[in-house]
Each structure stands twice: as C-alpha cells, then as structure tokens.
Amino acid sequence: MTNSQPPLPQPQLEPAGITFDQYEEFTPEKLELWDGYLGYGGQVRIVG
User: Fold this and answer.
1) DSSP label at 5?
2) CB-CB contact of 21 with 6 (8 Å)
3) What is the pLDDT at residue 13?
4) C-alpha span between 17 and 39 (Å, rounded)
5) Pairing of strands 31-34, 37-40
6) What angle do CA 37, 42, 44 make, to 5 degrees?
7) DSSP run (H or E) holding 15
8) What element of type H or E holds 39?
9) How many other C-beta atoms can be found within 10 angstroms of the C-beta atom of residue 9?
10) Distance, CA of 19 to CA of 42 (rounded, Å)
11) Helix segments in the chain, DSSP class H
12) Segments of the chain scoring below 50 in pLDDT
C-alpha cells in the first residue's frame, strides 16, 4: 500500500518551511475573511 499524502510537518522549536506538496494537501480549498476573522468556504456563520 502506498501513501499518496505527503508527511505532516513536524513541530520544531525554530520556524521551518513546508513543501508545496504539504501546502497543497493540507490547506482547505477556499479561505475567506469575514469581519477580520478567517473562515473556510461554505462554513455556516452565526451572527449574534
């Protein structure tokens, strides 16, 4: 069985980059800003 997903980035004490494959695999398809807050596309927003 082959693992088609890239490995998850490992936490480090110092900032470390990720590969493009990791970014592409683990980033949601669409990110949106609503009133200064980050949300994912299609997410239900509750306004109070």
Assistant:
1) S
2) yes
3) 93
4) 23
5) antiparallel
6) 65
7) none
8) strand 37-40
9) 13
10) 27
11) 20-26
12) none
